[in-house]
């Protein structure tokens, strides 16, 4: 069972750490309580900080060599433990539908991608395919909120903030696990 998105709490300083992965550097920004605020395949933590909702966005970022269980989960996932990320707490803020949609994304199992239409239906708004796609596009916590597991209805990749080659790698990685 995946961990729910944690309720918002603004912090002035957040920690970040970057680890090497097969897709390149992966940086995670976490609140003082360890909840993931943003994550992605970049070595530039500022690129992630600006993705965090303004009510949660930290004023400062503090570099760490690792973030304990969060870093361990990122490493384990990339090494083949596809469920390692499932229980890591995430904190994102937006409207009611987006917050719910992000929680729903965390229930899409590795190796079983769904379409944007199916995602909209799972989120309780079957006619809101565009809103479902928007939830993927606005997701700041890549990997932990696995928007890469959502495809176009015809099975093609659609978009991904970190590039289509990264999305393809993630889906291939999960299909073998």
From TrEMBL:
Gene3D superfamilies: Winged helix-like DNA-binding domain superfamily/Winged helix DNA-binding domain (1.10.10.10). The lineage of its organism: Bacteria, Bacillati, Actinomycetota, Actinomycetes, Mycobacteriales. InterPro entries: MethylDNA_cys_MeTrfase_AS, MethylDNA_cys_MeTrfase_DNA-bd, MethylDNA_cys_MeTrfase_DNAb, WH-like_DNA-bd_sf. The keyword Transferase applies. It catalyses: a 4-O-methyl-thymidine in DNA + L-cysteinyl-[protein] = a thymidine in DNA + S-methyl-L-cysteinyl-[protein]; a 6-O-methyl-2'-deoxyguanosine in DNA + L-cysteinyl-[protein] = S-methyl-L-cysteinyl-[protein] + a 2'-deoxyguanosine in DNA. Residues 97-176 form the Methylated-DNA-[protein]-cysteine S-methyltransferase DNA binding domain. It comes from the Bacteria. This is Methylated-DNA--[protein]-cysteine S-methyltransferase. Keywords: DNA damage, DNA repair, Methyltransferase, Transferase. GO terms for molecular function: methylated-DNA-[protein]-cysteine S-methyltransferase activity. GO terms for biological process: DNA repair; methylation.
């Amino acid at each position: 069972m995946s961990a729910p998105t944690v309720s918002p709490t603004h912090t002035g300083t957040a920690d970040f750490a970057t680890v090497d992965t097969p897709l390149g550097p992966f940086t995670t920004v976490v609140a003082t309580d360890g909840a993931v605020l943003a994550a992605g395949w970049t070595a530039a933590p500022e690129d992630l900080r600006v993705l965090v909702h303004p009510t949660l966005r930290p004023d400062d970022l503090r570099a760490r060599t690792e973030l304990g269980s969060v870093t361990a989960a990122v490493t384990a996932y990339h090494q083949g433990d596809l469920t390692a990320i499932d229980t890591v707490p995430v904190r994102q803020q937006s409207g009611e539908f987006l917050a719910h949609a992000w929680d729903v994304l965390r229930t899409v199992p590795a190796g079983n991608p769904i379409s944007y239409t199916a995602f909209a239906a799972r989120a309780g708004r079957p006619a809101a395919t565009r809103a479902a796609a928007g939830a993927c596009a606005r997701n700041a916590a890549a990997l932990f909120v696995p928007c890469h597991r959502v495809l176009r209805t015809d099975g093609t990749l659609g978009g991904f903030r970190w590039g289509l080659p990264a999305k393809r790698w993630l889906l291939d990685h999960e299909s073998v696990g």
